[in-house]
Specification:
Distance between the termini: 26 Å
Strand content: 35-45%
Helix content: 10-25%
Strand order of the largest sheet: 4-1-6-5-9
Structural class: alpha/beta
Number of strands: 9
Radius of gyration: 15 Å
């Protein structure tokens, strides 16, 4: 029996922090409900940095001039369904800083299935029983806030 590898879907995701080092997460109802960082798949000819800025504009109405795009912090690979088709999604996570006042979902052009957005403190993120993607986000943020961006992106699982 042979198993084929699902088609590759490259994605860019933003770990968005404000001046108080709170992280911005989006809530979705699918799969029992979960919170996740903003982001999505790359468009043809697009690099990860450009996709990150585009996704922030589309999902949260953030003007790219208001975004301080930082280093790639992490990468995650996961097989899952997109539009009823299995893909192998490879996500690159970038440190992004914005002012909370620059988030304006009313300007979002593609809010997808986002139910709400919320700023989380590190303590709230550690204490929640809700599902948050990527797994390990609290540990990653703890290290980044204490020591800065890693020399090489951290590989996240789950």
């Amino acid at each position: 029996m042979t198993t084929s590898t699902p088609p590759l879907r490259e994605a860019a995701r933003a770990i968005v922090l404000d001046a108080e080092d709170r992280v911005l997460l989006l809530r979705y109802d699918e799969n029992g409900g979960f919170w996740a960082t903003p982001g999505g798949s790359l468009e043809d000819g697009e690099d990860h940095a450009t996709a990150t800025l585009r996704e922030l504009r589309e999902e949260l109405g953030i003007d790219e001039k208001a975004v301080e795009l930082g280093a790639q912090l992490a990468e995650r690979s996961k097989d899952h369904l997109v539009g009823g088709r299995e893909v192998r999604q490879v996500e690159k996570y970038f440190l992004t800083r914005v002012s909370a006042a620059d988030v304006d979902p009313a300007r979002a052009s593609q809010p997808d299935n986002i139910r709400e957005h919320r700023w989380w403190t590190l303590a709230e993120l550690r204490a929640t029983a809700e599902t948050v993607y990527p797994h390990g986000l609290a540990d990653l943020l703890t290290d980044v806030l204490a020591h800065g961006a890693p020399v090489r992106p951290v590989v996240l699982t789950g």
